[in-house]
Amino acid sequence: MNNLTVHTMATAPEASKPLLENSIKNFGSIPSLHGVMAESPAVLEAYQMLHKWFQETSFNADELTVVWQTINVEHNCHYCVPAHAAIAKMMKVDDALTAALRHGEPMPTAKLQALHDMTLLLVRNRGLVDEAEVQKFYAAGYSQKELLEIILGMAQKVMSNYINHLADTPIDERFAAFVE
């Protein structure tokens, strides 16, 4: 694919260095994706903020994983699917949920299935979802708040998935065990 630079602390633009320090603080090292994003400090900062804000939504660890992985799998992101499988493991999400998301299998609960279905509808239909589907989502126990929070997760994932497609981002060693 494109030959986009995966920056390190030594090669990153000055304005990206504090952001990469945040990556090291939060992840123990610089994820390759963050190294690519460092070319544009604005992109890296926006991504880090979206990630932080999405984790502060009303979704629990299973629900965060459902939204992230539904989008990653739908976008066929070679980097984010294993990365979020590793993140799910760190968040103590059941491996069966991660496997179901990766393989297009049913979710373990009706509520998680409704979240998965709504996320897919939003991604595939570019936000154009009919009222009956929205009501089905609400009937599963979600509200307008969660409907909007899915969009926040989508914004984060569009950034990472599309950048990974452009960069053919190399898989970090810590995520390699989660590649299928």
Question: Secondary-structure map with pairings?
Answer:
Layout: H1 17-27, H2 32-37, H3 41-55, H4 61-74, H5 80-90, H6 95-103, H7 110-124, H8 131-139, H9 144-167, H10 173-176
List keywords for this structure.
single chain; mainly alpha; AhpD-like; 10 helices
A few lines on this structure:
The protein is mostly helical. Helix content is 66%, strand content 0%.
Indicate the multimeric state. Answer: single chain
Largest sheet: none
Low-confidence stretches: none
Helix content: 55-70%
The fraction of residues assigned to DSSP E strands is under 5%
- CATH topology (level 3) name of the domain at 58-176: AhpD-like
Number-wise, the strands total: 0
Q: What is the CATH C level class of the domain at 58-176, in words? A: Mainly Alpha
Structural class: mainly alpha
What is the rounded Rg? 16 Å
Shape from CA axes?
globular
Based on the structure given, which CATH architecture of the domain at 58-176 is correct?
Answer: Up-down Bundle
What pattern of helices and strands is seen along the backbone? HHHHHHHHHH
Explain what this protein looks like in three dimensions.
This protein has a domain at 58-176: AhpD-like. Helix content is 66%, strand content 0%. It is mainly α and 180 residues long. The mean pLDDT is 96. The protein is globular. It is built from ten helices and no strands.
